[in-house]
Amino acid sequence: MMNPKAVAMLALALMATPHSMSTAFSSVPFAVRRNNNALASSSSVDVEAAIDSTATAAAKSKTQRIMEQTYSGGQTGGAGGSSTWDAFCKAEANWKRLRDSEAFFFDPQRLTTDDPNNDHGQRPIFVTEDGAQGNPACWEKLRSSSAENKMDYDVVVCGGTLGIFFATALQLKGHSVCVVEGGKLQGREQEWNISMDEMLELVDLNVLSQEDIDASVTTEFPGCRSGFKNNEEQTSGSYQENGIGYELFTEDVLNLGVAPAVLLERVKQRFLKLGGVVKEETPIRGVCISETNGAAVDLVSSEEEPITASLVLDCMGNASPISRQQRYGMKPDGVCCVVGTCAAGYDKATNTVGDLIYTNTPIQDKGDDGMLQYFWEAFPVGIGRDGNEPGSSDVKTTYMFTYMDADKKRPSLETLMEDYWKLLPTYQPSIQDPENDLDFKRVLFAFFPTYKDSPLQPQWSRLLATGDASGIQSPLSFGGFGALTRHLERISDGVSEALVSGCLHKDDLGEINAYTPNLSAAWMFQKAMSVRIGQKNVDPKFVNRLLATNFEKMEESGIDTIKPFLQDVTRFDGLLSSLGGSFLADPFFMPEIIGHVGIPSLVEWLGHVSMMGLYTVNHALVSPILTSIVDSDLVKNPRTKFQLRRKMDAWKFGSGSDYILPRDQK
């Protein structure tokens, strides 16, 4: 193999050749061409330095070359908010740290700081109820606030990107709310994709107006394709008939592209007009909790005193230091790794619909890194709405994602990114060489750890995790905005009643983050779409066969079955319908499915499905009776009322009965 300097010398030699030979040079990556063009006009004194520069460029991976040439403005916090090479390296280091970590048991009830059996370092302390820990100023202010019987706010929301929506909903209910954001409270440049019915849920809550939707939605297209194929070719009929795959198209699912920068700014301004307070670029050092008095949020800046509140909401996402403290010693049960880009240069004529979940390869054998099934997702960007200007665009966002565990043998993000560059031309045939054919706006990357014990139960009173910090989103999803629109009314109602009735003990707040069997049942889908390290006798076509058959049967069952599932809502009736149809269509596949997921996991899953059935019955038959009792004078205790309402919420959302079916919308 030629070394980088030899490659650079060859490139220089080509520059001196006649024009007929310069076509060979056109295949050299743009970064190398740019260096050589500059070198052609330089003096001989600079030649060696230019050679070294070119050699360095040639030694870089394609990922690094592309990212270093991509516009780096508009960076924000949160998943997908930053797309620089430095940010990628930090994410890579965090992913490696997670893979290399070992799960261990930690007993928080052992009252010792000197444990000879613990070689994992001291547990991080971000939240404390111990007056000997934390900032003394927090405890002093809590004592003085208690004496005056007044906190600074009813609620402090930590993390503003999605927290601003919770804050606005609570401010509308008459509570005083402060949002604390470590950076600027601004949306990323990358569009969020969502459905109109989900956006309208925010309008129903007065968190958004129709004008807000019109201002922030920059892309609207008919719908999205779903498909599962062993190779990229046109198919007809079922998987059992063609042996390749199956694809379908669903209207009005994730077919809106929302500009987060516009949306968040409008929600923030609405929140401020309602009397809310936003503290931007205000990092948090910790939280001190007095169960009887309140909570104090300790700010990093020594110039600002702690903020006190009756309740703290953790909206800091899956990397929340609060969740990290509570999950000390745990490794995630699953991970969704995502890489992708937003780029111009695609064929405008075909850039008119999205892909929600799509495969065109079997399971990839990555050797020591394990086996991975790659999925694609894609959305057109900036094509306008309802056929209005511009009407078309060559800009598209494409994601490649996969499900796995956090085993130390799993591949790096850069390995996934390099596979993305290699496989993208097959997925998007209008391009041949991504590095030269596309104008990259952003390079996207993230990993989303998920835990079976979600949503996260509170460990402390007066503190509740919401959104991604609680794990309320589906383990199949890598975006929390859709889950927010679904749960915002339920959570804001529960938090408001908790504040009014004084139900701020961790046991009561835990009723807001109650067990939801449909969320737990979704774990089986992630497990079925991943392959364990060392798992033997895996058919590379397993995932495509499984999903092609299931999606075909869901489509046959109608829009009331397929659409909720595509919006991350698992309903008992739809689940039974698709599973029954799949078994009849491919009965001899069942032993292979059982062998793939394992009998213990299957038994656990059947338990969650059974609870989905029970929750469905309870919501339909028990909740109407219980609602009339709770709303009457028969139940006088405020705490009992609170707990019964949360139980009914759990039945409703845990069975998927909160989802308004298309037939009911009409």
UniProtKB/TrEMBL annotation:
Protein name, per record: FAD dependent oxidoreductase domain-containing protein
Q: Does the keyword Thylakoid apply?
A: no
Keywords from UniProt, A to Z, are: Signal
Q: Does the keyword Transcription apply?
A: no
Signal peptide residue numbers = 1-22
Transmembrane segments annotated in the record for this chain: none
Q: InterPro entries given for it?
A: FAD/NAD-bd_sf
Q: Record's SUPFAM superfamilies?
A: FAD/NAD(P)-binding domain
